[in-house]
């Protein structure tokens, strides 16, 4: 790496810390964030309560589960994400509570922290190390992945598979992850046993509330329940997938080689090389998706609450420019979606 870049992260952290100190702003959640949490949790929990308490008849069940899907995505992007990054508060217990909301959605926060914090954030776009570019065999997200002829059509069918993202997590994916992490020595045997026991316990509790109670109280068949459950997860999964995939699987984003020795500055530069922002001027959209359109800022400062990313963006862009480093972004979400579709097509045609 060029020596001119060696102090990038030091300079950037200095400028970001200066912003917070000069404006006397805390790096964690503010009133805006707490109001958002109440809204997103309400969108998810209220339809469920209205159904099980008998305030909604079966003709509106589909609408309730649809709303729950939007609420799921909102809780995931706006609450649990910050909580599990310890970005919500300086109080560890508050972060735990906010991160714990993932259990309400069918996932488990300890597994998510390994996949997202430990692997994805350290090795973005590094094949076999970043789980986000090593997905199911039907998708190819890296030029370093093995090639199959079916990938020629992934720019068409990938969008449907995106809708299965949270459904997969709520059913079998986390079990498969633990087995894979144990095999690859990412977790120890003792950790595997502990995490597997906890996973079984959390899944049992989740399905008690999301399956057993609705079938008994709502007087619906298993097939009716499954259709509603699938609708909820498809909505949530699709929304989450298109928000995250447009941040990394993009034409401008690099796919890096694995390195055992990764110093702090190299890690920071890698975040710029592998990440892209979008919709920097759409405040409403940014508010709704938990600031994840500022993915560069999130990757560089995961411990800062997302409500501050908009103000940090010009700082990061300026310092990156000072060090002759890229700052990838698209003007709006539609441009990001189109560019992501082009990348899916390119990866589907290009053989290793």
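^ Assign residues to that structure.
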């Amino acid at each position: 790496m060029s020596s001119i870049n060696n102090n990038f992260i030091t300079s950037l952290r200095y400028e970001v810390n200066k912003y917070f100190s000069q404006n006397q702003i805390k790096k964690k959640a503010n009133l805006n964030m707490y109001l958002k949490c109440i809204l997103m949790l309400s969108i998810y929990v209220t339809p469920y309560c209205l159904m099980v308490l008998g305030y909604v008849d079966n003709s509106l069940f589909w609408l309730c589960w649809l709303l729950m899907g939007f609420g799921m995505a909102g809780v995931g992007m706006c609450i649990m994400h910050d909580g599990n990054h310890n970005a919500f508060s300086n109080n560890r217990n508050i972060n735990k509570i906010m991160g714990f909301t993932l259990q309400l959605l069918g996932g488990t926060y300890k597994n998510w922290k390994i996949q997202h914090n430990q692997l994805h954030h350290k090795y973005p776009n590094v094949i076999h190390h970043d789980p986000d570019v090593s997905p199911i065999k039907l998708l190819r997200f890296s030029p370093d992945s093995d090639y199959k002829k079916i990938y020629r059509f992934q720019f068409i069918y990938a969008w449907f598979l995106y809708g299965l993202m949270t459904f997969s997590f709520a059913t079998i994916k986390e079990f498969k992850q633990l087995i894979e992490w144990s095999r690859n020595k990412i977790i120890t045997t003792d950790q595997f046993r502990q995490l597997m026991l906890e996973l079984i316990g959390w899944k049992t509790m989740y399905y008690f509330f999301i399956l057993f109670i609705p079938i008994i109280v709502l007087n619906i068949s298993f097939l009716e329940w499954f259709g509603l459950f699938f609708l909820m997860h498809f909505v949530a999964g699709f929304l989450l997938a298109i928000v995250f995939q447009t941040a990394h699987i993009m034409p401008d984003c690099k796919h890096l080689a694995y390195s055992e020795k990764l110093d702090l500055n190299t890690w920071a530069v890698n975040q710029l090389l592998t990440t892209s922002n979008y919709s920097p001027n759409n405040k409403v959209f940014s508010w709704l998706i938990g600031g994840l359109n500022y993915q560069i800022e999130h990757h560089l400062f995961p411990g800062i609450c997302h409500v501050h990313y908009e103000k940090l963006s010009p700082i990061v862009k300026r310092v990156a420019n000072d060090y002759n480093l890229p700052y990838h972004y698209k003007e709006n979400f539609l441009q990001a979606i189109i560019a992501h579709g082009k990348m899916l097509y390119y990866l589907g045609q290009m053989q290793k």
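The radius of gyration is 21 Å.
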